[in-house]
Protein: 6-phospho-beta-glucosidase
Organism: Gracilibacillus ureilyticus
Amino acid sequence: MFQIKTKFPDNFLWGGATAANQFEGGSNVGGKGLSVSDVYYFDEDIPKEQLSNQWLKMTRKQVEEAQDPTIKKYYPKRHGVDFYNHYQEDIALFAEMGFKAFRMSIAWTRIFPNGDEQEPNEEGLAFYDRVFDELNKYGIEPVVTLSHYEMPLNLVTKYNGWVNREVIDLFVHYATTVFERYKGKVKYWMTFNEINSCKHHPYVSLGLIDEDHLHLEQAKYQGAHHQFVASALATKVLKEIDSEAKMGCMVSYTLFVPYSCAPEDFQKTMDRQRDALLFSDVQVRGYYPGYTARLLADRNVVLKMEPEDEQILRNNPVDYVSLSYYMSSAVSAQPENLEGAIGNLLVGGIKNPYLPESAWGWQIDPKSLRSALNQLYDRYQKPLFIAENGLGAVDTLEEGDIINDDYRISYLREHIKQIKEAIADGVDVFGYTSWGCIDMISASTNQISKRYGYIYVDQDDMGNGTKRRIKKQSFYWYKHVIKTNGEQLE
Protein backbone atom coordinates (compact mmCIF):
# COMPACT_ATOMS: atom_id res chain seq x y z
CA MET A 1 0.00 0.00 0.00
CA PHE A 2 2.75 2.43 0.97
CA GLN A 3 5.64 2.96 -1.42
CA ILE A 4 8.40 5.53 -1.27
CA LYS A 5 8.95 7.40 -4.51
CA THR A 6 12.67 7.17 -5.13
CA LYS A 7 12.78 8.97 -8.48
CA PHE A 8 11.57 12.13 -10.13
CA PRO A 9 8.28 11.62 -12.02
CA ASP A 10 8.73 10.58 -15.66
CA ASN A 11 6.96 13.74 -16.84
CA PHE A 12 8.85 16.09 -14.49
CA LEU A 13 9.19 19.58 -15.96
CA TRP A 14 12.90 20.41 -15.92
CA GLY A 15 13.77 23.85 -17.23
CA GLY A 16 14.79 27.41 -16.51
CA ALA A 17 13.16 30.68 -15.55
CA THR A 18 13.31 34.28 -16.74
CA ALA A 19 11.31 37.51 -16.53
CA ALA A 20 10.56 39.80 -19.45
CA ASN A 21 11.68 42.94 -17.61
CA GLN A 22 15.15 41.51 -16.94
CA PHE A 23 15.62 39.56 -20.14
CA GLU A 24 13.60 40.70 -23.09
CA GLY A 25 14.78 44.21 -23.96
CA GLY A 26 13.25 45.87 -27.00
CA SER A 27 11.58 48.53 -24.88
CA ASN A 28 11.60 51.04 -27.73
CA VAL A 29 10.20 48.75 -30.43
CA GLY A 30 6.98 46.94 -31.18
CA GLY A 31 4.78 49.51 -29.47
CA LYS A 32 5.86 48.61 -25.94
CA GLY A 33 5.18 51.08 -23.12
CA LEU A 34 7.22 51.83 -20.00
CA SER A 35 6.83 49.48 -17.04
CA VAL A 36 7.58 49.94 -13.36
CA SER A 37 10.92 48.18 -13.87
CA ASP A 38 12.00 50.47 -16.69
CA VAL A 39 12.72 53.31 -14.27
CA TYR A 40 15.57 51.59 -12.42
CA TYR A 41 18.94 52.98 -13.46
CA PHE A 42 22.44 51.64 -12.91
CA ASP A 43 25.39 53.75 -11.82
CA GLU A 44 28.86 52.22 -11.59
CA ASP A 45 29.77 54.64 -8.78
CA ILE A 46 27.11 53.31 -6.40
CA PRO A 47 28.69 50.90 -3.86
CA LYS A 48 27.60 47.28 -4.35
CA GLU A 49 25.97 47.08 -0.91
CA GLN A 50 23.73 50.05 -1.77
CA LEU A 51 22.60 48.98 -5.24
CA SER A 52 19.44 47.28 -4.00
CA ASN A 53 18.19 50.34 -2.07
CA GLN A 54 16.57 51.75 -5.20
CA TRP A 55 14.63 48.52 -5.72
CA LEU A 56 13.17 48.61 -2.22
CA LYS A 57 12.01 52.24 -2.34
CA MET A 58 11.15 54.40 -5.34
CA THR A 59 10.57 58.16 -5.27
CA ARG A 60 8.21 60.18 -7.43
CA LYS A 61 11.18 62.26 -8.60
CA GLN A 62 12.92 59.14 -9.92
CA VAL A 63 9.76 58.04 -11.73
CA GLU A 64 9.32 61.45 -13.35
CA GLU A 65 13.00 61.69 -14.25
CA ALA A 66 12.92 58.27 -15.94
CA GLN A 67 10.24 59.49 -18.33
CA ASP A 68 12.38 62.43 -19.47
CA PRO A 69 14.12 61.47 -22.74
CA THR A 70 16.90 64.01 -22.09
CA ILE A 71 18.10 62.28 -18.90
CA LYS A 72 21.51 60.67 -19.45
CA LYS A 73 21.19 57.61 -17.25
CA TYR A 74 21.45 53.94 -18.14
CA TYR A 75 18.27 51.94 -17.51
CA PRO A 76 19.37 48.27 -17.85
CA LYS A 77 15.95 46.65 -17.80
CA ARG A 78 14.91 48.52 -20.92
CA HIS A 79 17.61 46.58 -22.75
CA GLY A 80 17.83 43.25 -20.91
CA VAL A 81 19.97 40.84 -22.93
CA ASP A 82 17.88 41.40 -26.07
CA PHE A 83 15.85 38.19 -26.08
CA TYR A 84 13.48 40.18 -28.29
CA ASN A 85 15.93 39.75 -31.17
CA HIS A 86 17.68 36.57 -29.96
CA TYR A 87 14.67 34.43 -28.99
CA GLN A 88 15.25 31.79 -31.67
CA GLU A 89 18.91 31.36 -30.71
CA ASP A 90 18.15 31.32 -27.00
CA ILE A 91 15.30 28.81 -27.26
CA ALA A 92 17.49 26.57 -29.41
CA LEU A 93 20.07 26.58 -26.59
CA PHE A 94 17.36 25.73 -24.04
CA ALA A 95 16.32 22.86 -26.28
CA GLU A 96 19.92 21.66 -26.52
CA MET A 97 19.96 21.41 -22.73
CA GLY A 98 16.79 19.33 -22.99
CA PHE A 99 14.37 21.75 -21.34
CA LYS A 100 10.90 20.34 -20.77
CA ALA A 101 9.58 23.72 -19.61
CA PHE A 102 10.47 27.39 -19.83
CA ARG A 103 9.12 29.71 -17.18
CA MET A 104 8.76 33.22 -18.62
CA SER A 105 6.54 36.25 -18.32
CA ILE A 106 4.55 38.32 -20.75
CA ALA A 107 5.34 42.03 -20.58
CA TRP A 108 1.95 43.58 -19.81
CA THR A 109 3.23 46.79 -21.44
CA ARG A 110 3.87 44.99 -24.72
CA ILE A 111 0.18 44.05 -24.91
CA PHE A 112 -1.33 47.18 -23.34
CA PRO A 113 1.40 49.88 -23.33
CA ASN A 114 -0.44 52.11 -20.85
CA GLY A 115 -2.48 49.39 -19.20
CA ASP A 116 -5.86 51.05 -19.75
CA GLU A 117 -6.37 50.75 -23.52
CA GLN A 118 -9.40 48.89 -24.82
CA GLU A 119 -7.62 47.36 -27.81
CA PRO A 120 -4.38 45.40 -27.44
CA ASN A 121 -1.16 46.05 -29.30
CA GLU A 122 -1.06 43.51 -32.14
CA GLU A 123 2.72 43.73 -32.51
CA GLY A 124 3.14 42.61 -28.93
CA LEU A 125 0.69 39.75 -29.26
CA ALA A 126 2.40 38.59 -32.44
CA PHE A 127 5.81 38.57 -30.74
CA TYR A 128 4.64 36.09 -28.11
CA ASP A 129 2.95 34.01 -30.81
CA ARG A 130 6.41 33.60 -32.34
CA VAL A 131 7.98 32.77 -28.98
CA PHE A 132 5.36 30.14 -28.12
CA ASP A 133 5.56 28.63 -31.59
CA GLU A 134 9.34 28.38 -31.25
CA LEU A 135 9.01 26.67 -27.87
CA ASN A 136 6.41 24.31 -29.27
CA LYS A 137 8.78 23.39 -32.12
CA TYR A 138 11.13 21.88 -29.53
CA GLY A 139 8.44 20.43 -27.28
CA ILE A 140 9.14 22.93 -24.48
CA GLU A 141 6.15 23.74 -22.26
CA PRO A 142 5.80 27.49 -21.55
CA VAL A 143 4.94 28.34 -17.93
CA VAL A 144 3.80 31.94 -18.11
CA THR A 145 3.54 34.63 -15.45
CA LEU A 146 1.06 37.39 -16.23
CA SER A 147 2.68 40.07 -14.07
CA HIS A 148 6.34 39.73 -13.07
CA TYR A 149 7.34 43.16 -11.75
CA GLU A 150 6.33 44.85 -15.00
CA MET A 151 2.95 46.54 -14.60
CA PRO A 152 2.50 49.58 -16.87
CA LEU A 153 4.01 52.74 -15.42
CA ASN A 154 0.89 54.66 -16.43
CA LEU A 155 -1.06 52.64 -13.84
CA VAL A 156 1.26 54.07 -11.19
CA THR A 157 1.20 57.71 -12.26
CA LYS A 158 -2.47 57.88 -13.29
CA TYR A 159 -4.18 55.33 -11.01
CA ASN A 160 -1.86 55.20 -7.98
CA GLY A 161 -1.14 51.52 -8.52
CA TRP A 162 -2.95 48.52 -7.06
CA VAL A 163 -4.38 50.48 -4.16
CA ASN A 164 -6.91 51.67 -6.75
CA ARG A 165 -9.62 49.05 -7.29
CA GLU A 166 -10.01 50.08 -10.94
CA VAL A 167 -6.76 48.28 -11.72
CA ILE A 168 -8.51 44.93 -11.09
CA ASP A 169 -10.64 45.32 -14.20
CA LEU A 170 -7.67 46.50 -16.26
CA PHE A 171 -5.68 43.42 -15.24
CA VAL A 172 -8.56 41.05 -15.96
CA HIS A 173 -8.99 42.65 -19.40
CA TYR A 174 -5.29 42.03 -20.07
CA ALA A 175 -5.48 38.46 -18.77
CA THR A 176 -8.58 37.70 -20.85
CA THR A 177 -6.85 39.02 -23.97
CA VAL A 178 -3.82 36.75 -23.64
CA PHE A 179 -5.86 33.72 -22.51
CA GLU A 180 -7.95 33.97 -25.66
CA ARG A 181 -4.97 34.60 -27.90
CA TYR A 182 -2.78 31.79 -26.58
CA LYS A 183 -5.38 29.13 -25.88
CA GLY A 184 -3.80 25.80 -26.77
CA LYS A 185 -0.29 27.29 -26.71
CA VAL A 186 0.02 27.83 -22.95
CA LYS A 187 -1.19 25.27 -20.41
CA TYR A 188 0.42 26.60 -17.22
CA TRP A 189 -0.16 30.15 -16.00
CA MET A 190 0.64 32.17 -12.88
CA THR A 191 -0.92 35.50 -11.98
CA PHE A 192 1.53 37.55 -9.87
CA ASN A 193 5.19 36.81 -9.33
CA GLU A 194 6.20 36.57 -5.66
CA ILE A 195 2.95 38.20 -4.62
CA ASN A 196 3.98 38.31 -0.95
CA SER A 197 7.03 40.45 -1.78
CA CYS A 198 4.79 43.51 -1.87
CA LYS A 199 5.57 43.79 1.83
CA HIS A 200 9.22 44.49 1.02
CA HIS A 201 9.19 46.33 -2.31
CA PRO A 202 5.72 47.84 -2.79
CA TYR A 203 6.68 49.96 -5.80
CA VAL A 204 7.65 47.20 -8.20
CA SER A 205 5.01 44.79 -6.84
CA LEU A 206 2.05 47.11 -6.38
CA GLY A 207 3.00 50.35 -8.08
CA LEU A 208 3.10 52.22 -4.76
CA ILE A 209 5.42 55.18 -4.32
CA ASP A 210 6.17 55.48 -0.59
CA GLU A 211 5.79 59.24 -0.32
CA ASP A 212 2.28 59.10 -1.79
CA HIS A 213 0.97 57.03 1.13
CA LEU A 214 0.91 58.35 4.69
CA HIS A 215 -0.07 54.85 5.89
CA LEU A 216 2.06 52.63 3.68
CA GLU A 217 1.10 49.38 5.45
CA GLN A 218 -2.56 50.10 4.75
CA ALA A 219 -1.76 50.70 1.08
CA LYS A 220 0.29 47.50 0.84
CA TYR A 221 -2.41 45.20 2.19
CA GLN A 222 -5.19 46.98 0.33
CA GLY A 223 -3.22 46.61 -2.89
CA ALA A 224 -2.55 42.95 -2.09
CA HIS A 225 -6.27 42.39 -1.54
CA HIS A 226 -7.02 43.84 -4.95
CA GLN A 227 -4.42 41.49 -6.45
CA PHE A 228 -6.09 38.53 -4.70
CA VAL A 229 -9.42 39.47 -6.25
CA ALA A 230 -7.80 40.06 -9.65
CA SER A 231 -6.05 36.68 -9.45
CA ALA A 232 -9.31 34.90 -8.59
CA LEU A 233 -11.18 36.63 -11.42
CA ALA A 234 -8.38 35.80 -13.87
CA THR A 235 -8.55 32.16 -12.75
CA LYS A 236 -12.30 32.17 -13.37
CA VAL A 237 -11.82 33.60 -16.88
CA LEU A 238 -9.07 31.10 -17.70
CA LYS A 239 -11.31 28.15 -16.83
CA GLU A 240 -14.09 29.56 -18.99
CA ILE A 241 -11.76 30.02 -21.96
CA ASP A 242 -9.61 26.88 -21.62
CA SER A 243 -10.79 24.21 -19.19
CA GLU A 244 -7.55 22.26 -19.69
CA ALA A 245 -5.27 25.11 -18.56
CA LYS A 246 -3.90 25.37 -15.02
CA MET A 247 -3.51 28.49 -12.89
CA GLY A 248 -0.96 28.79 -10.12
CA CYS A 249 -0.07 31.33 -7.47
CA MET A 250 3.59 32.22 -6.93
CA VAL A 251 5.18 33.16 -3.61
CA SER A 252 8.69 34.06 -2.54
CA TYR A 253 9.31 31.40 0.07
CA THR A 254 11.94 31.70 2.75
CA LEU A 255 11.91 29.03 5.42
CA PHE A 256 12.16 30.77 8.78
CA VAL A 257 13.91 28.93 11.62
CA PRO A 258 14.27 29.93 15.29
CA TYR A 259 17.70 31.28 16.17
CA SER A 260 17.45 29.53 19.53
CA CYS A 261 15.10 27.16 21.34
CA ALA A 262 13.64 30.02 23.39
CA PRO A 263 9.81 30.02 23.16
CA GLU A 264 9.90 33.69 22.16
CA ASP A 265 12.07 32.87 19.15
CA PHE A 266 9.73 30.07 18.14
CA GLN A 267 6.68 32.35 18.27
CA LYS A 268 8.47 35.10 16.36
CA THR A 269 9.43 32.52 13.72
CA MET A 270 5.81 31.40 13.35
CA ASP A 271 4.73 35.03 12.98
CA ARG A 272 7.29 35.63 10.22
CA GLN A 273 6.26 32.47 8.34
CA ARG A 274 2.62 33.47 8.48
CA ASP A 275 3.51 36.76 6.80
CA ALA A 276 4.25 34.75 3.66
CA LEU A 277 1.63 32.03 4.14
CA LEU A 278 -1.19 34.58 4.25
CA PHE A 279 -0.66 35.23 0.54
CA SER A 280 -0.75 31.61 -0.53
CA ASP A 281 -3.56 30.79 1.94
CA VAL A 282 -5.91 33.26 0.28
CA GLN A 283 -5.15 32.10 -3.24
CA VAL A 284 -5.09 28.36 -2.53
CA ARG A 285 -7.79 27.99 0.09
CA GLY A 286 -9.94 30.85 -1.16
CA TYR A 287 -10.27 32.75 2.10
CA TYR A 288 -8.29 34.77 4.61
CA PRO A 289 -6.88 32.57 7.43
CA GLY A 290 -7.92 33.03 11.05
CA TYR A 291 -4.73 34.82 12.04
CA THR A 292 -5.42 37.65 9.55
CA ALA A 293 -7.39 39.75 12.02
CA ARG A 294 -4.54 40.01 14.49
CA LEU A 295 -1.90 40.40 11.78
CA LEU A 296 -3.73 43.38 10.27
CA ALA A 297 -4.61 44.89 13.64
CA ASP A 298 -0.95 44.81 14.67
CA ARG A 299 -0.24 46.94 11.57
CA ASN A 300 -3.25 49.22 12.09
CA VAL A 301 -4.66 48.06 8.75
CA VAL A 302 -8.39 47.99 7.95
CA LEU A 303 -9.14 46.39 4.61
CA LYS A 304 -11.88 47.78 2.42
CA MET A 305 -13.69 44.87 0.76
CA GLU A 306 -16.68 44.76 -1.52
CA PRO A 307 -19.56 42.38 -0.59
CA GLU A 308 -18.77 40.02 -3.49
CA ASP A 309 -15.05 39.71 -2.76
CA GLU A 310 -15.24 36.80 -0.33
CA GLN A 311 -17.31 34.73 -2.76
CA ILE A 312 -14.97 35.55 -5.67
CA LEU A 313 -11.98 34.33 -3.66
CA ARG A 314 -13.75 31.20 -2.40
CA ASN A 315 -15.03 30.14 -5.83
CA ASN A 316 -11.76 30.55 -7.73
CA PRO A 317 -8.74 29.03 -5.97
CA VAL A 318 -5.58 28.23 -7.91
CA ASP A 319 -4.70 24.75 -9.17
CA TYR A 320 -1.10 24.62 -7.99
CA VAL A 321 1.41 26.46 -5.81
CA SER A 322 4.67 27.75 -7.23
CA LEU A 323 7.50 29.23 -5.25
CA SER A 324 10.90 30.80 -5.45
CA TYR A 325 13.41 29.48 -2.95
CA TYR A 326 16.84 30.97 -2.36
CA MET A 327 17.50 30.82 1.37
CA SER A 328 16.31 30.23 4.90
CA SER A 329 16.43 32.88 7.61
CA ALA A 330 17.04 32.63 11.34
CA VAL A 331 14.65 34.63 13.54
CA SER A 332 15.14 36.04 17.02
CA ALA A 333 12.68 37.88 19.24
CA GLN A 334 15.64 39.97 20.45
CA PRO A 335 17.87 40.61 17.44
CA GLU A 336 19.56 43.74 18.79
CA ASN A 337 22.73 42.00 19.98
CA LEU A 338 22.99 39.49 17.14
CA GLU A 339 24.64 39.77 13.74
CA GLY A 340 22.14 40.40 10.98
CA ALA A 341 22.05 38.51 7.69
CA ILE A 342 22.28 41.71 5.68
CA GLY A 343 22.59 39.86 2.38
CA ASN A 344 19.17 38.25 2.85
CA LEU A 345 17.76 41.24 1.01
CA LEU A 346 14.01 40.91 1.47
CA VAL A 347 13.69 39.04 4.73
CA GLY A 348 16.71 40.16 6.74
CA GLY A 349 16.88 38.04 9.86
CA ILE A 350 19.79 36.85 11.95
CA LYS A 351 22.93 35.38 10.46
CA ASN A 352 22.83 31.61 10.81
CA PRO A 353 26.30 30.45 11.91
CA TYR A 354 25.78 27.03 10.33
CA LEU A 355 25.34 28.31 6.79
CA PRO A 356 27.72 29.59 4.08
CA GLU A 357 26.77 32.58 1.97
CA SER A 358 27.07 33.80 -1.61
CA ALA A 359 29.23 36.69 -2.83
CA TRP A 360 26.18 38.91 -2.30
CA GLY A 361 25.71 37.70 1.26
CA TRP A 362 22.74 35.39 0.62
CA GLN A 363 22.89 32.48 3.06
CA ILE A 364 22.83 29.10 1.32
CA ASP A 365 20.63 26.37 2.81
CA PRO A 366 19.66 23.53 0.43
CA LYS A 367 18.24 21.28 3.14
CA SER A 368 15.59 23.81 4.08
CA LEU A 369 14.17 23.54 0.55
CA ARG A 370 13.02 20.03 1.50
CA SER A 371 11.44 21.45 4.66
CA ALA A 372 9.77 24.25 2.70
CA LEU A 373 8.27 21.84 0.18
CA ASN A 374 6.96 19.60 2.96
CA GLN A 375 5.52 22.57 4.79
CA LEU A 376 3.63 23.85 1.76
CA TYR A 377 2.37 20.43 0.65
CA ASP A 378 1.26 19.46 4.15
CA ARG A 379 -0.68 22.71 4.31
CA TYR A 380 -2.35 22.69 0.90
CA GLN A 381 -2.19 19.20 -0.63
CA LYS A 382 -1.86 20.75 -4.06
CA PRO A 383 0.92 20.19 -6.62
CA LEU A 384 4.04 22.31 -6.17
CA PHE A 385 6.21 23.91 -8.84
CA ILE A 386 9.64 25.37 -8.04
CA ALA A 387 9.66 28.43 -10.27
CA GLU A 388 12.97 29.92 -9.10
CA ASN A 389 16.15 28.73 -7.40
CA GLY A 390 19.67 29.77 -8.29
CA LEU A 391 23.00 31.31 -7.38
CA GLY A 392 24.12 34.81 -8.35
CA ALA A 393 27.89 34.90 -8.83
CA VAL A 394 30.68 36.60 -10.76
CA ASP A 395 31.70 34.36 -13.67
CA THR A 396 35.06 34.61 -15.43
CA LEU A 397 35.26 34.11 -19.19
CA GLU A 398 38.56 32.34 -19.84
CA GLU A 399 40.46 31.84 -23.06
CA GLY A 400 38.70 29.45 -25.39
CA ASP A 401 35.23 30.52 -24.24
CA ILE A 402 35.47 28.51 -21.02
CA ILE A 403 33.47 29.43 -17.93
CA ASN A 404 34.16 27.13 -15.00
CA ASP A 405 31.19 27.66 -12.69
CA ASP A 406 31.57 24.65 -10.41
CA TYR A 407 30.19 26.77 -7.54
CA ARG A 408 26.89 27.05 -9.40
CA ILE A 409 26.81 23.34 -10.17
CA SER A 410 27.43 22.56 -6.50
CA TYR A 411 24.65 24.93 -5.39
CA LEU A 412 22.09 23.52 -7.81
CA ARG A 413 23.10 19.90 -7.22
CA GLU A 414 22.51 20.17 -3.48
CA HIS A 415 19.11 21.79 -3.96
CA ILE A 416 17.99 19.20 -6.51
CA LYS A 417 18.97 16.45 -4.05
CA GLN A 418 16.59 17.98 -1.54
CA ILE A 419 13.75 18.12 -4.08
CA LYS A 420 14.23 14.38 -4.56
CA GLU A 421 14.12 13.91 -0.78
CA ALA A 422 10.86 15.86 -0.63
CA ILE A 423 9.39 13.66 -3.36
CA ALA A 424 10.39 10.63 -1.27
CA ASP A 425 8.55 12.30 1.63
CA GLY A 426 5.40 12.15 -0.49
CA VAL A 427 5.38 15.73 -1.78
CA ASP A 428 3.85 16.23 -5.24
CA VAL A 429 6.46 18.36 -7.05
CA PHE A 430 5.91 18.51 -10.80
CA GLY A 431 8.59 20.91 -12.03
CA TYR A 432 11.79 22.81 -11.39
CA THR A 433 12.89 25.86 -13.38
CA SER A 434 16.12 27.25 -12.00
CA TRP A 435 16.40 31.00 -11.96
CA GLY A 436 18.27 32.73 -14.72
CA CYS A 437 18.89 29.92 -17.18
CA ILE A 438 20.67 32.59 -19.20
CA ASP A 439 22.44 35.66 -17.78
CA MET A 440 20.19 38.69 -17.45
CA ILE A 441 19.75 41.86 -15.42
CA SER A 442 19.54 41.32 -11.66
CA ALA A 443 16.13 42.28 -10.27
CA SER A 444 17.54 43.91 -7.15
CA THR A 445 20.90 45.42 -8.18
CA ASN A 446 20.30 46.05 -11.92
CA GLN A 447 23.62 44.38 -12.75
CA ILE A 448 24.36 41.62 -15.22
CA SER A 449 27.65 40.87 -13.46
CA LYS A 450 25.56 39.12 -10.80
CA ARG A 451 25.11 36.12 -13.06
CA TYR A 452 22.80 33.14 -12.63
CA GLY A 453 22.67 31.46 -16.01
CA TYR A 454 23.90 28.31 -17.71
CA ILE A 455 24.53 30.57 -20.69
CA TYR A 456 26.93 33.50 -20.47
CA VAL A 457 25.97 36.71 -22.27
CA ASP A 458 28.87 38.92 -23.39
CA GLN A 459 27.60 42.13 -21.85
CA ASP A 460 28.75 44.32 -18.96
CA ASP A 461 26.82 46.28 -16.35
CA MET A 462 26.58 49.33 -18.62
CA GLY A 463 25.20 47.29 -21.52
CA ASN A 464 28.44 47.12 -23.51
CA GLY A 465 29.36 43.92 -25.32
CA THR A 466 28.59 41.72 -28.29
CA LYS A 467 25.59 39.93 -26.68
CA ARG A 468 27.26 36.69 -27.77
CA ARG A 469 25.90 33.59 -26.02
CA ILE A 470 28.51 31.21 -24.52
CA LYS A 471 27.85 27.90 -22.78
CA LYS A 472 29.15 27.55 -19.22
CA GLN A 473 30.22 24.27 -17.64
CA SER A 474 26.87 24.22 -15.84
CA PHE A 475 25.18 24.07 -19.25
CA TYR A 476 26.60 20.62 -19.89
CA TRP A 477 26.00 19.49 -16.32
CA TYR A 478 22.31 20.49 -16.36
CA LYS A 479 21.88 18.88 -19.76
CA HIS A 480 23.00 15.58 -18.23
CA VAL A 481 20.77 16.07 -15.19
CA ILE A 482 17.74 16.47 -17.45
CA LYS A 483 18.77 13.57 -19.70
CA THR A 484 18.94 11.25 -16.66
CA ASN A 485 15.78 12.77 -15.09
CA GLY A 486 17.72 13.84 -12.05
CA GLU A 487 19.31 10.45 -11.40
CA GLN A 488 22.87 11.56 -12.13
CA LEU A 489 23.84 14.82 -10.45
CA GLU A 490 27.62 14.55 -10.30
